[in-house]
Amino acid sequence: MISALFFLISLLFLYFCYGKNIKIFGLVLVFFYLITALFSYSFYFAYGKFLDLSLLQVILLSIKGAPLSIYYKEILLFLSCVVAILLFCLLIYQRSIKNKFKFKYFNYLFFATMFLAIAQNPLIYTISDIFKIENPIKVKLSKDRLHKYIVKPAPNKLNLDKNIVYIYLESFNANFTTDFADLTPNLNSIKNKIEFTNIKEPISRAAFTIQGIYASMCGTSYPVKEDKHKRPATDALCASEILKESGYYLSFMKGASLDFQGTRSFLEAKKFDKMSGKEEFAKRGVDKFNEWGVDDDVMLEFAFKEFMRLSQEKDKFLLSFITVGTHTPDGFISQKCSQIKYKDGKDKMLNAVKCTDFLIGEFIRKIQSSKFSKNTIIVVQNDHYMPLFSHTSNLEPKMYFLIIDDDIKELKRVDFAGTTFDTFTTLFGYMGVLDKMNLGRNVLKNLSFDKDLKDSVKKDIYDTAATQSLDLYN
């Protein structure tokens, strides 16, 4: 608001500025200000926050491979705004150049107010914040603060030698299961589960798929830096590595390409034995794809076959996968869901949510009906909040997180506060493995580490964990 006020005042001074070259340079500054404001508020509209190091990281990770064509409406809107800004600048120039009243001292007033407007622009704060992270003095203070909370995992011997099926639902907010009548009847009807009702996305570092999966599995922020093999440069000990040391076989599936956002590099770095993505499914004969990759109904057929194979051939395993059906902007409807609609069917995303509920419900029932059910724990969580959060009520968005096990005899709801950092750690706590993993906490027994911290302190700890990940325990 302060920035916009100074900007409007600077426009008034520009109108009375003296000298054609000054006016042209002034309009360049006006264009720069409006473009940076458009850029900043576009992120704020989509993700509820301005551009920061976390968002910048994922933009760089996502440049290659993202199907931009499905965002054509958003791209056209952005380009229209750019054209409108250009026309506005031309209009200001034409009006001001014809103005006969010019005052030299207004030149100084224009530059002073424009400087104040730019200095208050959110993007400038972003740039300043990024530079601060590399400041040696601030790094030292931030690392000292981080080390008060970071806990290197010290796993016990697994008390439950059960297999794990860990399902990530793309952008699937918990609000879909609570704020819409009959939208998710299959997930809501599951009885043998612990349902966590107060899990939230961290204020930074878990707003995109790779960040959300990493935050869950590792209980800390996705590293900013890569090693020479293009893998996440970190010494963080993660859930997959702990399971691997305990004799678990690790398999991961996604309908999209494993190379998008560096998923393959992450899985290789974290000791997964088998990885299947769009390219691997194509080799298996799949020839129908949506813009992101394989439809969920097809991937889930492969996932169940993988579950049965692993149950028969492996002593212990983790099978994890992520859906794609509820990906923004409008979701993707699998062929199995061609007749499934939510109410009048006009809202494409809510149709996609209902389809996901049907497919995941069917997948879970197939496992529970198999002879391997008693030896399997199923976990369901979303990877992150849905961007462009317009498909829920006005309630604050929450993460979706369930632990499903035949040994849970009745529905249990847990309202203890937590974040994405706590989800896999809480599963480990339920299994008796550990209660603390990096920044993650078992919320069945412990408070989430950041429960009583200010947002600025949380963000500092998250960013420090990401930028100093090669020295996380020292």
Automatic annotation (TrEMBL):
<feature type="transmembrane region" description="Helical">
    <location>
        <begin position="105"/>
        <end position="125"/>
    </location>
</feature>
<dbReference type="InterPro" id="IPR017850">
    <property type="entry name" value="Alkaline_phosphatase_core_sf"/>
</dbReference>
<keyword id="KW-1133">Transmembrane helix</keyword>
<feature type="domain" description="Sulfatase N-terminal">
    <location>
        <begin position="162"/>
        <end position="432"/>
    </location>
</feature>
<dbReference type="InterPro" id="IPR000917">
    <property type="entry name" value="Sulfatase_N"/>
</dbReference>
<dbReference type="Pfam" id="PF00884">
    <property type="entry name" value="Sulfatase"/>
</dbReference>
<dbReference type="InterPro" id="IPR050448">
    <property type="entry name" value="OpgB/LTA_synthase_biosynth"/>
</dbReference>
<feature type="transmembrane region" description="Helical">
    <location>
        <begin position="76"/>
        <end position="93"/>
    </location>
</feature>
<keyword id="KW-1003">Cell membrane</keyword>
<feature type="transmembrane region" description="Helical">
    <location>
        <begin position="29"/>
        <end position="46"/>
    </location>
</feature>
<keyword id="KW-0808">Transferase</keyword>
<keyword id="KW-0812">Transmembrane</keyword>
<protein>
    <submittedName>
        <fullName>Putative phosphoglycerol transferase I (Phosphatidylglycerol--membrane-oligosaccharide glycerophosphotransferase)</fullName>
        <ecNumber>2.7.8.20</ecNumber>
    </submittedName>
</protein>
<dbReference type="GO" id="GO:0005886">
    <property type="term" value="C:plasma membrane"/>
</dbReference>
<dbReference type="GO" id="GO:0008960">
    <property type="term" value="F:phosphatidylglycerol-membrane-oligosaccharide glycerophosphotransferase activity"/>
</dbReference>
<keyword id="KW-0472">Membrane</keyword>
